[in-house]
Fold these 2 entries.
Entry 1:
Amino acid sequence: MKFSFASVLSNALGGNAAWPAQWRSPEPKASYDAVIVGAGGHGLATAYYMAKERGLTNVAVIEKGWLGGGNTGRNTTIIRSNYLWEESEAIYEHAMGLWQELSTELNYNVMYSARGVMMLAHDRHDVETFKRHVHANRLAGIDNEWISAGEAKAFCPPLDVSPTLRFPVVGAALQRCGGVARHDAVAWGYARAASAMGVDIVQNCAVTGIRRDPSGAVAGVETSKGFIGAKKVGVVAAGHTSTVMAMAGVRMPLESYPLQALVSEPVKPFMPCVVMSNKIHAYMSQSDKGELVIGAGTDAYTSYSQRGALHISEHTLEAICELFPAVRRLRMLRNWGGIVDVTPDRSPIIGRTPVAGLFVNCGWGTGGFKATPGSGHVFAHTLATGEPHPIAAPFSLDRFRTGRLIDEAAAAAVAH
Amino acid sequence: MLLIRCPYCDMARPELEFRYGGQAHVARPADPATLDDAAWGEFLYVRSNPRGVAAERWRHAAGCGRFFNCLRDTVSDRILATYPAGAPAPDPAAPASGSGR
Ligand SMILES: Cc1cc2nc3c(=O)[nH]c(=O)nc-3n(C[C@H](O)[C@H](O)[C@H](O)COP(=O)(O)OP(=O)(O)OC[C@H]3O[C@@H](n4cnc5c(N)ncnc54)[C@H](O)[C@@H]3O)c2cc1C
Ligand SMILES: [Zn+2]
């Protein structure tokens, strides 16, 4: 089924009772050419590009819960590509390019909205760091500009830029093509398109083991629905990657932390863009439903509890109230947490592992939603060919042996 | 917020008084120069990240200032035991001592 004006109209006339299911829910087959563990945005995008660009449709995506129910459905959806190093610029900009046409490509409205992402500078250190990023980005042809506090105020009127603030706004880095998208729609759009091409998405099916053949290579996965054979397994399990990789005896340079977000009661449109402050650790945008979407930090300690501590969100709300005095009397509607997989250099790990046939795409930590299309695209190449895509090559697991880290701690300092 | 018992002060205090110090019992290799890159990378970067009982370091930053270790279940966040740096990890199945409950 293709979404079109005609299909929307005819279904509306029929009382919207005749919409078909958007993807199949098959029982798993005995074996596949490749199995992807984790039906988050990255796993589903991987399957989609494998089918679409490589003609590989004998593929299953195995999900222990429901698709998109991990960090994909829990994130604050900020999209930007103004990272510091060439390697990161390449992969995040690759994703940025794919976002532009994604709704058309998937025939599914992912509600990508390039409303601008503004990162506030509060002191001289911030100014120097952000200007360095702006210059590096411009050399690489990536949209990012330095603006004054007055221009920041003009771009985002609810922002308080008065010099009397405890942490006054002294300027900002603005990426105008940055913005947000509808997280669920990204998962659903990729799932629908992949399923239509023959990819099996198996939900409520936890991977509990990774079976190896006598040579040590991957033979398939043990799941709560039985054994599923596959010569290639791609693990895309975000915060649970360490536990899944441990099933194959592979130890990872990852730590899993709870990261939380919260939304306010819905109000009329008043927040025109995304604003983030690394220094006082707060960021905010407004959803199309009217809720203010606010991101807090990670807890101090590793955990799989999938909820963050109250003092973490309190800290963020204090900063939000300081920057946006108009929101002080709003009530928060709900908050939640996701488990994010953090690498030592805050950059992802995409590629081969020491186990033949076992591949991994993880370590996106607090900020991988923005990369979803690009990550799936390059990982599909890796799974199809067994070789890293040129854009993904620097993000190998091996960099933690060679020492060629890609340190994005500054770009990723606020959890997003 | 966790309630953590500092084994030196012998008091259960709010998490805000402490700093997290990552995985415990990661000993610095006695002679780093003899390690190959893989072993050195493992020491620097690879972590157990268990879903279950984790041994981890904490520092009582706003108290006695000292490092100690802690066993915590990373699914429930329940603290099973805290113990001085240098002491071996207690058996998590044994009755809790110095627990922060
Ligand atoms: C609160 C919060 C805010 C965030 N804000 C932003 C933001 O503004 N911008 C941004 O770019 N990024 C943000 N992120 C990060 C972003 O959400 C993630 O980097 C990204 O969504 C990861 O996608 P994924 O598909 O790899 O993971 P997930 O969507 O988590 O998918 C992994 C899937 O693997 C499944 N799985 C795990 N173990 C198993 C198993 N044993 N068997 C089968 N399936 C398994 C899980 O159930 C899950 O569905 C945020 C994250 C959080 C938590
Ligand atoms: Zn103490």
Entry 2:
Amino acid sequence: MPVMREPAPSRGAFVDFAPEATSLEVSGFGLRYGDKPALRNLTLRVPRHRVTAFIGPSGCGKSTLLRALNRLHDLNEEVQWEGRIRLEGQDIHAPEVSVAELRRRVGMVFQAPNPFPMSIYDNVAFGLRLQGGMRKRRLDDTVEWALRSAALWDEVKDRLQASAWSLSGGQQQRLVIARTLAVGPEVLLLDEPASALDPISTLKVEELIRNLKSSLTLVLVTHNMQQAARVSDYTAFLQDGELVEYAPTDTLFTNPRLRRTENYITGRMA
Amino acid sequence: MSRWWQGRARLPRGEGPWAWLAAGSVTLSVALLALLLGLLAIRGLGHFWPGDIALVTLEDGRQLAGREVKEVPLPDGEGRERLYRTGNRELDGDIWAWVPVAAIETVSHPRELVSLERRHWGELVGRLVAWVPEQGPRLEGEAAWSALQSRLGTLERQREALERWREQTLSPLVRRLESGEADAAATDALQALQARLRERRAAMAGDRLILATADGRRLVQPVEEVLRATRPNAMGVLAKLGAWGRGAWRFLSEGPRAANTAGGVWPAIFGTVLLVMVMSLLVTPFGVLAAVYLNEVAHQGRLTRLVRIGVRNLAGVPSIVYGVFGLGVFVYGIGGRLDAWFFADTLPSPTFGTGGLLWASLTLALLTLPVVIVATEEGLARIPDRQREGALALGATRLEMLSRVVLPMATPAMLTGMILAVARAAGEVAPLMLVGVAKLAPQVPVDGDFPFLHLERKFMHLGYHIFDAAFHGGDVQAAMPLIYATALLLVLVILLLNLTAIFLRHHLRSRHGTLSQC
Ligand SMILES: Nc1ncnc2c1ncn2[C@@H]1O[C@H](COP(=O)(O)OP(=O)(O)OP(=O)(O)O)[C@@H](O)[C@H]1O
Ligand SMILES: [Mg+2]
């Protein structure tokens, strides 16, 4: 433990948006894997139709937090949590909330692309077919719309029936985004979506994120400071499972309030 | 690229004797397998070849006719002796003749030597003296031969017609009577039919052959008993090939004769394949469900680990133990109960309370269950969690995730399990003897009667057929070629079943290019 601890920031106080603009609200949230704490007393608000970036050293709990936001931890019997997470004001752990419904509203894209071993078309239609009752025509249209939204349509429109695993890594990641968009989520969680991609694919994904902002709330986990600076509106810095600093991206990168934040950013950027 | 190549080039040198030892073991195993298959193929396939008949004249003037089987040194080391297969069991009491090579004066292959294949008594070898039809003139020489050939052709057709009639008209009636569905009028009808059958049979008798053996004895042979007549020494290679092909086809397509020592094995092929298919249909769903439960549903605690170890060890239990279990639980336990509840009117003759296709399939399914579970579990464990999470994150329930993503991805593994199960089950004989295999089951378990697939019936099996022909037939030496042929067939059938499953798996894999990674 450092000899001189910095004063605990009053978390979430530095963001400047109105409470009505909050999409996701995390309050007093803590999470443990068995005996091992991964998140501690986390409180923050994620603004609607903006890009919020989570940064922090490896193992600080970014993915854990992201997975908590659409209850992917539910299946892990080891996990214990406390606190509250609200989506548009409603507690996502409330008994009347259906997990499947929640996950459709809060979509998630993982670090490594994980298309299913099916055709490109079937991948995008997967979530829609789960809901059922969609005519072939509408299904086609939605698939096309999702692929267009993910800036993949032009590359795959001639081979929709080809195996999704025949796509390149960057295309696969955009396919996964399309697949998630197809079910019409309000929030899109992206866990290092570009870490496995080459620079050009990365740029495409970043552009995509910027474009999606107009209709979606985006949460982006990244190790790439430039990327966070380029695409996000707000940035949260986490360390050891705690929220250290949360501010508009410009402020956080140019004028961090805390030494810890500055060290991390400059260390990475230098 | 270049590093990979260097690594390969270095390997044999660096490994030294170990590499040789390993390579040697592989070579030895492959050679032994090739030897096994080669032996089965040569001995088995040779059985259908119409070999030349030798006419042997001994120093003392005696003559005998037969096919040379083998030549071995005499026990005292002086000279050698030859074994001839002479046929004519009813005349000599034996179909073999040992002849010291030194005592042989000449060996010739006269064209007129005839080999008759008969329904009873096996082969007859000799000269055709005369053809004595019921009506018409007595014929001799070449005329007798052609008369015989044309009569055999009509006889064959008559026999087939009779067989069809028996199957389509007579057998269903008999079955209806046995199951108590038909009334007294049917009994009369049956008797009338049986009388007609006897009449027709009798009408076929009458024509006779007179033959002379090599040593001059005469014999009268009713033509109706004769299945085929050949003169192998007069046949060219093409004709022999034709006869060989027809012989092999008869072996595949006909039922057994003469206490399983002659004739074909069609019911046994059918029984083997049907047994394995029913077994696969039973074991695959159970095994897959069990594996899914163990791998995807159950809490991964100590109990699950224990169950998993138990399942793995079950694979090592000797098959006869499963046979005993099947007999006790399926046949007597469940079968007896079923009979008491649903088939009480036919008791004490059992319906399900005796061995049958269903119980044998179930027993084999139990035997192969661990294999399917283990293979499927391994396939499930290889599927990355991110695939499961991907499905869940799209709002899939656990059931949807399993059925739409996980199980399709695990299909190749399930089929691998099925392949292993088929391989194990198709070769099992021991447990079958307890739970339903039959020495002779003329009715295959599938026919035109509702419900078409008769799971309660007994069935024949290639493996048991070999066992039976080898240990219960009278003349093992005579049945030997047939045993080889059956063994070859068993291997081929298993191979074919496996290839079918492998083809299926390949087909499923190639539907999605790189899916084979999982
Ligand atoms: N399933 C799990 N079981 C137990 N511990 C876990 C599990 N997943 C993560 N952890 C632990 O929780 C802590 C936070 O992990 P998390 O994956 O959230 O980190 P992260 O910030 O996403 O790191 P990275 O940047 O490397 O992805 C780590 O110490 C990790 O070891
Ligand atoms: Mg992570």
